[in-house]
Design a protein that fits this description.
255 residues, alpha/beta, Rossmann fold, 2 domains, six-stranded parallel beta sheet, two-stranded parallel ribbon, 9 helices, 8 strands
Amino acid sequence: MVLGDGAPFGWKSRVRTLFRTGLARRASQWAGCMVFNSNATRDQFSRFVGAPACGRVIPEPLEEQPHSARPRERGRLIFVGRLVAVKGGIDAISVAAAIPKGSLDIVGEGPQRPLLEQHAASLGVEKRVTFHGWKSTGEVARLMSGAMCMLVPSHWFEAWGMVGPEAIAQGCPVVAYDSGGIREWCLPRYGTVVPHGDIQAMTAAAREWMSRMQGGFDTSVWHAEAHQLWGEARYVEQYTEAAQAALQAFQKKRR
């Protein structure tokens, strides 16, 4: 196991996790309703802590960003995330290198950036990979709207993976490793899930989506669909339902 920054899951982290597991088990016994951001995290909780009496899945809401109709750049891929080992930036560069005339926007920062730059140079694609650093939400949306495919080569358990739905909302298909809750939003209509760590499968899927996009595949309706599925209005509706379920459970216990 690793932490969010890719560091080993050491003994101190293990002790803290065991302590928190006990707290979580007690919380699940008295809570009227427990909320998880994906079915994957709820399944993990049920497996290692215990199934809650009432559990609801409420994904993170999409930020309200307008859909950009700017032309997409042929061969352009995008990766958004922290530049740490578990996010798979090296895999994203390898995919871009394997696609003739493919280019890659990397949005994010982190300790692995020098290694990623070296990897791009070693493959001879340093001029085809652009490191943007961190950008504002609006700037990230603009970059997504100009790409033909997003890569999510995450090597760790993604509780949800917010960048995928954000790309879909900008009409950008996603190719992702099968990790955690990613399969719950990376539906066949919006992208392709490939086996974890399979760079060749990710490359093939990315090329297929890019070919479809170059052929005029229309994704303009994805913005409305994404916000219907994961937007703020749906988020409020789901939390209202969860609060009502918790209240009913509380009232039942008092009887």
